[in-house]
Amino acid sequence: xxxxxxxxxxxxxxxxxxxxxxxxxxxxxxxxxxxxxxxxxxxxxxxxxxxxxxxxxxxxxxxxxxxxxxxxxxxxxxxxxxxxxxxxxxxxxxxxxxxxxxxxxxxxxxxxxxxxxxxxxxxxxxxxxxxxxxxxxxxxxxxxxxxxxxxxxxxxxxxxxxxxxxxxxxxxxxxxxxxxxxxxxxxxxxxxxxxxxxxxxxxxxxxxxxxxxxxxxxxxxxxxxxxxxxxxxxxxxxxxxxxxxxxxxxxxxxxxxxxxxxxxxxxxxxxxxxxxxxxxxxxxxxxxxxxxxxxxxxxxxxxxxxxxxxxxxxxxxxxxxxxxxxxxxx
Length: 330
Description:
alpha+beta; four-stranded antiparallel sheet; 8 strands
């Protein structure tokens, strides 16, 4: 999730885990600072100056239970002098819970989290967007009222409401998946498919849809308020363009994208498009995915460069989501 939400969650967890003898200032600082630590891996990854390494490192070891167990010991040792009013055990437990809930929340997003490192697989439920104010606002209201009135009841209420929203997302995701597959089979009854549905920006009402068959992907969207028939846009995967290439970077891209990719060509050669985060631009003249990588041949194989994004396309995408949610023409 976004850094602000993680801070709000961290402060909320710190408030309910610490006893009333700890000051509001200490609760806020401990929760906010500790909650941001796992995401510092973004800045460490940038030192490698390689887009693939950046992706692989983010939400890897730094988001694992093993790392949290060790890091909590270190932080407890460093800050105990400022928390003499509570025991070492309570301080350690609070720090560990702030770190753990950070990763558990990330598990619900599309990016996924390597929670059980050294197991390489990242867990991704894909039921909430990385920024979702329907989750954040109840949590924020709860902790503001809780700290202001020195009442944990408000903070618990915020945590319960935001957690219920996470459960809502999981339920709606399964409902949408079932409806999408039913509508897809009406149009393409002979297709053997794999379906992925993910929420769009900051809501759990409009969902991106990826339906995979043997040769490519059908992409669409679905709103829980829809009554009309779905339309699907087909993208051939074009695996044949890279099947003959034995290259470590291309294999890394396949693994990162969970094999949800298509290969296209531009004036500079082959482009690897990761489909998991949807389309950034989709017009009659141009199609661009949120994450696309130019494959650049060299003596030692292929290097990878992420294609730039235009902020105007992102703004237009948000406008399109709003129009789609409100059943207006795009």
